[in-house]
Amino acid sequence: MTNASKKAVVLLSGGLDSTTTLAIAQSEGFDCHAMTFRYGQRHSVELDAANKIAERMRVARHVVVDIDLAMFGGSALTSETLSVPKDRSVEEMDASIPITYVPARNTIFLSFALAWTEVLGAADIFLGVNAVDYSGYPDCRPEYIEAYERMANLATKAGIEGSRLKIHTPLITLTKAQIIRRGLDLGVDYSLTSTCYDPDPTSGKPCGRCDACQLRIKGFQQNGMEDPALTAAKED
Q1: 2 within domain boundaries
Q2: Among 42, 80, 88, 195, which one has the highest count of C-beta atoms within 10 angstroms of its own C-beta?
Q3: What is the pLDDT of residues 23-45, one digit of tens each?
């Protein structure tokens, strides 16, 4: 059965996970509408990546939503005074909720996606959260997604009238290596993606040392290849 006539909203950050999620949604026949957020993140190079990816993958529409989470602070991703952790072991990453956690970010993002989904007359949202390789974020857990979906179906006109919303999290039980393999099988060009939490402010090159970079590099190594983003950075 094809979903070719069905619209879906895909949260697209410009990173590896969200790009793979977009490719999966398209492979399942969804007419994808991509939503990206400019929320005050220090790694704003991902916005350029999201634009390139949306164009390359020919989404139906791509919107960039402006919100300012930096006004609240509380995260190394939205503050110039908090340092992004570097050179940590996986055990250190998993020990506690990291300073790169942005308070309530996925709840806020999903709320915007929910509004657009209802306006589009859609019933599907795709989100690239993952709870295996790096489970330090509370809003990436399956129980959180399940709870949000229940709330969404109680809080919308569409839900009350019987059009049930589904939040798809196709990566949630996959390792980073498995995510990359899935994307490669679908033809994802990972050289376009940006995952680094602390890229060079001028060139946008990944640092190669933050948690996100380390997990990404390891995932490509487990697939027998170098991270295309690092390869591209070396060639520049």
Answers
A1: no
A2: 195
A3: 999 999 999 999 999 999 988 89
Domain containing 222: what range? 7-235
SS (H, E, C) the chain: CCCCCCEEEEECCCCHHHHHHHHHHHHCCCEEEEEEEECCCCCCHHHHHHHHHHHHCCCCEEEEEECCHHHCCCCCCCCCCCCCCECCCHHHHHHCCCCCCCCCHHHHHHHHHHHHHHHHCCCEEECCCCCCCCCCCHHHCHHHHHHHHHHHHHHCHHHHCCCCCEEECCCCCCCHHHHHHHHHHCCCCHHHCCCCCCCCCCCCCCCCCEHHHHHHHHHHHCCCCCCHHHHHHHHC
Q: Whole-structure pTM over 0.90, yes or no? A: yes
| CATH number of domain containing 21 | 3.40.50.620
